[in-house]
């Protein structure tokens, strides 16, 4: 992850380019259009499905368009499959053991696919999030096709938005300034990644941590146990990234500050229109920062996630925020312990 660079956050913000604003604008449009359509149709109960499909626009940044089509297309398929799996589990009233099994499949698949195809973000966070939120939403069986179809349509729209700059860049291909800076990120397909020990260490960390966090949160009886699972996945670094305590703390602090921002957004009990505006702004801010400082990005990711959850299934705001804080602390603590364990094992291996 790029948040391991020694630069301070202000320095990283000063280095923002027009391309960063282009990418963030695409991501904001990708989520704004489906949410405002649902608002007009008075169906914001379906906001989660549209939002997870729209997260396709978070992938493929700074990549040439042929590579971007591959990256964002793979992300779209992963997001829709995760939503579909969660929706089917919810409609069938699946037991927790089946949800846990699906979680393991999504974690392993997400990490392996991200490593092989060089996806950024390189973690299974959004796939896990889509699975667990959709698995937790009450779903009548007859609504399954609609909800999965909505996620697929939103993903297709986000993919089109992601590719929309192709004609503009073709027109400005002779330039290398401003909005037409070169697209320099071009990840290769690396099937050899599946043989790397670091990948399977990350898989083991995520699977063990996610299952432990979910089990503890469920046993304690805190609402929304999936927040603890998502927090674990947010804290654990991707394969080959340095297991830095400071990075883990940044992620934890970013999430906690994000909860406070969400409280400022939701406590006045604004109308749904205002919450949708807040979600769109949060999507923009998260995409601006995710490549610069992941901890700061979580200040926006958290109100984005909680805002969507509140639109889909309104709860008392205090309960929502307390659950999020408690489960973030639980998941982050487990994730941090796993980071420390990985550092300890690495240090032992390096000793003569």
From TrEMBL:
One of its GO terms (cellular component) is membrane. Keywords: Membrane, Transmembrane, Transmembrane helix. It is a multi-pass membrane protein. The chain crosses the membrane at residues 21-40, 74-91, 97-117, 124-140, 146-168, 297-322, 328-346. Residues 212-337 form the Integral membrane bound transporter domain. InterPro entries: Memb_transporter_dom. This is Integral membrane bound transporter domain-containing protein. It comes from Microterricola viridarii.
